[in-house]
């Protein structure tokens, strides 16, 4: 109590003295401004120099960089203050330096002070290099002094005595630096003692206010200047107080609680260790024990202190433990394994580490660590059993498994990297000899029975020592995938590979490469599993399960451990935790949990810390982190850290990586959902026709089979399934389900004696095939029609060329032939006229014959000329009744022909050339007469078809043979003894010239009908 009172009195006395000195200085300031300025600057220089002197003397013992930066910085700041007062007006020490130099020294000192205020908080808790820091400040000071003295810098005061722009800019830059320093100090609030924090923060705030007042005092008002310098002096005094008094005279209350925090962490670690830690006196009595030791010997019922070790171990074992105590060597230690019986009569196996307890240079008992290895021995036994089980699984596995040594391959690929090869896949593909050499470098360590059965086949001379024994020329390229896995440092990879057996049987496999943990640096131990593609899913799951079990049993995988206080500040973490988070291992003590995790994960973790701190539970949470390499899942167990039984000071988090387990669960869940979610039928049928599985899509098929009612599948399906299993080949059938067609693919699984059926609705496919077939047929028909039309066009072109030649011939010789015929006709006429009475009757008949032949020749010539130069139609309104009446006056029917004209009275007129149509109808009438050798008839009828008038000329003559029907309109085609075959050709040409058309129908020996279509008269508009 007296000590605390003396401290309080001393503190009050120092405060009174400081206040009196400051008041005295201010009184002097009102009397003599220059003297005030000199004194207050001098005191500031003395404070800064003392602060630096003490810190520099104790620099080797002061580990915190804050003090050193602050002391060195303020020393050089005080140098500039000294230069400022020595160059001020009225101080004739440096006569060549004026007021502008004095103010620049003043600003330089303030700038160095502000920078030191900014850098010092950053160096809290860090070591700095003393000499290098001092050198840096020295060089900076020399440069600044040289620039101020030797260069003509812009004036800082105007002629009127106010601040210039450069002065204002420098002032506000210093203020900004000090504001940043304020925020840096504030960030350290959690790690600073409350009193220390507020003193540092107050000093920084006073420095900011001082600089602000000085900067705003643009007219250099004396009262404002005094206020600014007073605030600056108080700020220096506070720094002196916190640095010299608190930091030197009271080191137990320095800024941080490193020692206290370390002690608490050590205590927590000591109490939470699984190993029992004890101290024995010279009589083997426990004088100290931690909770783990109490649990080992007493089962957690009471404390071990006061008990004697002989109560739990035999005298021989006790002698082994304490035998080293009598040894004069104080640094000796021993370890042994022993069996004990605890207070609950349970046998336990322990490893004991003991060493002498030295007190004041003498051995005074034993320091002993008991490590309970009962569970470890049990686990070791289980691990050995698991190892035997794994070896059995390895040798008897239903897949081919190898253990290979790829270390030489790894070296060769590393050499390629040193040579600058980047695109390894391209290099391997372009250098097959290199790939083959890599196969030769692979060393086979061991392989299982299935490999031996596949590639050795019982022949001892075929033992596999090199992978070249299972490759052939074309399959080396499939080894590129394995080389790529090594080149990219993969420890796990999956790819396809092709190999060959001694009996030349090619095997296509899915290869799973796995580097044995701890051997991934040189690939000296690589597990290769080869699975046939047909059963790769089943084999992959079995292999993955085996590897996972082996990994969990064989590997001593670490866990992430972190200690956090209730506010989320980091008290401790190990390297494994940082590895799980995906960040480098650094000293993060004192940082917040938000510096480790992103915002969402940090908030979630902090909420769990708070929840656990309020309960007695030790919950486990499953959480995930999204890292650059993908999402990682963790199982995290939260345990309270208790300062005492009622006060929780933090939470311990133990994190296990369960990413692989989550991925497997997701894969298994996905595989299990696949047939259920498939909309198509998926079924499994046994050999005897029992449906062992069907998804919802398969129910319509079962309904078609009437399976639910009969309890069995149709006989034809049973036969197909048995054939599939007997021959080992898949079958495809189609079933009609309602209005749809479903294709069923039946895949036999012979070793399991069942068939998997995968259905697919092919209705649309079948419809498309039918439409395609129909389209193909239509296309063939169109092609045939187009071909016929093309042939017809070719025939028309040939006929037109023929007609053109005939037309030219007719034009050339028509007139030449008519002149002789006219002479012959005149001669006959003169003979008849002059010798009528003298000619005998035969002679007169001969003249008649000449007349007939001349008329016939004239008709032929007329037809030729008409054919050669058919005139354009002169279309007029024409009455068919009148035309036929006139024609039958000229062409009187023979006695053997009965003509019947059956035309409606109101027959409309046609719009044609009447002369050309008369010629056409005359040809048809004459041809009808000539086609009736005996008694017959000619019938003429008419009807209206759309906008055409159809006239039918039907005779009962001999008819036209079918083979001649297509030729009758060709020129020069005739079956008559007379004529040259131009009548119908001309008729067709004339009809078409009038916008009509002509058709013919004929039956041999029954008659012929010629139909002409003439355009009806256009109605008047």
Automatic annotation (TrEMBL):
Gene Ontology molecular-function annotations: ATP binding; phosphorelay sensor kinase activity
Ranges of residues in domain Histidine kinase: 812-1018
Pfam families: HATPase_c (PF02518), HisKA (PF00512), MASE3 (PF17159), PAS_4 (PF08448), PAS_9 (PF13426)
Name of the protein in its database record: histidine kinase
The protein's Enzyme Commission number: 2.7.13.3
InterPro entries, A to Z: HATPase_C_sf (IPR036890), HATPase_dom (IPR003594), His_kinase_dom (IPR005467), HisK_dim/P_dom (IPR003661), HisK_dim/P_sf (IPR036097), MASE3 (IPR033425), PAS (IPR000014), PAS-assoc_C (IPR000700)
Enzyme class: transferase
Domain PAS: start-end pairs: 546-616
Boundaries of every PAC domain copy: 493-545
Signal peptide segment: none
Catalytic activity reported: ATP + protein L-histidine = ADP + protein N-phospho-L-histidine
Transmembrane segments: 12-31, 37-58, 70-91, 103-122, 134-153, 168-186, 229-248
Record's keyword terms, sorted: ATP-binding, Kinase, Membrane, Nucleotide-binding, Phosphoprotein, Transferase, Transmembrane, Transmembrane helix, Two-component regulatory system
Keyword Phosphoprotein: yes
SUPFAM superfamilies reported for this sequence: ATPase domain of HSP90 chaperone/DNA topoisomerase II/histidine kinase, Homodimeric domain of signal transducing histidine kinase, PYP-like sensor domain (PAS domain)
Species lineage: Bacteria, Bacillati, Chloroflexota, Anaerolineae, Anaerolineales
The keyword Transcription appears for this protein: no
